[in-house]
Design brief:
D-Maltodextrin-Binding Protein, domain 2, alpha/beta, 338 residues, 2 domains, single chain, 41% helix, 14 helices, 3-stranded parallel beta sheet
Length: 338
């Protein structure tokens, strides 16, 4: 009797796993397009132009996933989401994932019905002020008004920073990031606070960017990661390992220009596994053997994506810093393709 019960339990578990596997990925395949939650517009990360064409690191992550699935990076429907919408949109199935400068926190990961995948950008919260304010240190913002987006870790970090340093600040809260930025531009606030990379992005939109100073202090850890619905482990694995593949490709020197040649000629066993000429790694996540070859040739490795959207050839001119590979003094690291 116990043996029969065990067999029945195993069958139920197998059916459950099969249903999970046939969840988001099968929905995406049958729909023929990936629904990607994006920001309402953050230069360098996810930002639409006048024609609705999205650009940015977060946008390219979704394009890489679409390329891995469909061999076509254009099969993405970008859905702009305010900060308060980004988790709900994933939980309710409005989007298949959200890729929009979202900080990985314990509460979000354990209590709000979503799972984070892997970190695509290490950031920290900072402040931007007008140079004529005469402030060079965040602790000099005593009594200042600070524009901030409500319902975010940014708002909570601001309160923690003020409390920890015994500084009284007036938080001027807004529903959306654009509203907060515009309020700062208009002079309604003495300072604007958000992730430091976003401060660099928003400063490029100022009438005179040189009039604004980003203070050196970082008051928080902001590891940014795409997120998916909790419980669909196979979909989480797919998103996670596409990103890991982009990082691994940079580690191995595999680029959009040489990936096809490497797939045909390399003798490096790790590159063979990455590009699908050895092993069945695509099968593990429900994709073709050449899933990462597709993503890399169509979108590029992580380094190419970073430089195209955030690097020295862009208005943001961000250095890799902690987002460099470990060999270059950074934290960006992918588990093994094995």
């Amino acid at each position: 009797m116990a043996f029969k019960t065990l067999i029945l339990a195993g069958a139920i578990l197998a059916a459950s796993l099969s249903t999970t596997f046939a969840g988001t990925l099968e929905d995406v395949k049958s729909r023929g397009i990936l629904n990607c939650g994006a920001s309402e517009g953050v230069p360098g990360f996810s930002n639409p132009d006048a024609n609705g064409n999205w650009a940015g690191l977060d946008s390219d992550i979704c394009r890489a996933i679409a390329a891995a699935i469909f061999n076509d990076p254009t099969k993405v429907n970008f859905v702009p989401l305010a900060s308060k919408q980004k988790i709900l949109a994933v939980v309710t199935g409005q989007v298949d994932l959200t890729s929009r400068t979202t900080t990985w926190t314990m509460k979000r990961d354990t209590k709000e019905g979503v799972d984070f995948t892997t970190i695509v950008f290490y950031d920290g919260q900072g402040f931007m002020v007008r140079k004529d304010l005469g402030v060079t240190d965040a602790r000099q913002l005593k009594g200042a008004t600070v524009c901030v987006t409500t319902g975010t870790t940014t708002e909570l970090n601001l309160a923690d920073f003020a409390l920890a340093n015994n500084i009284k600040m007036e938080a001027v809260v807004f529903e959306g990031k654009k509203e907060a930025v515009n309020a700062y531009k208009s002079g309604r606030c003495d300072a604007f606070t958000t992730d430091s990379s976003q401060l660099a992005a928003w400063r490029t939109t100022m009438k005179n960017p040189g009039d604004h100073l980003i203070l050196k202090e970082l008051i928080s850890k902001e590891p940014l990661s795409p997120l998916v619905r909790h419980g669909d482990n196979k979909w989480k694995d797919l998103v996670t390992w596409v990103i890991n593949g982009l990082i691994t490709a940079e580690e191995l020197g595999v680029t959009s220009k040489n990936a096809t040649d490497m797939a045909a000629n390399t003798k490096n066993p790790t590159i063979k596994r990455l590009l699908g000429t050895s092993g069945e790694f695509g099968v593990y996540i429900g994709l073709e053997k050449d899933w990462m070859l597709r993503a890399i040739t169509k979108v590029g490795n992580y380094g190419e994506i970073f430089e195209r959207n955030l690097g020295q050839g862009t208005p943001l001119k961000l250095k890799r810093g902690v987002n460099a590979l470990p060999r270059d003094g950074g934290l960006l690291y992918a588990p093994a393709f094995r």
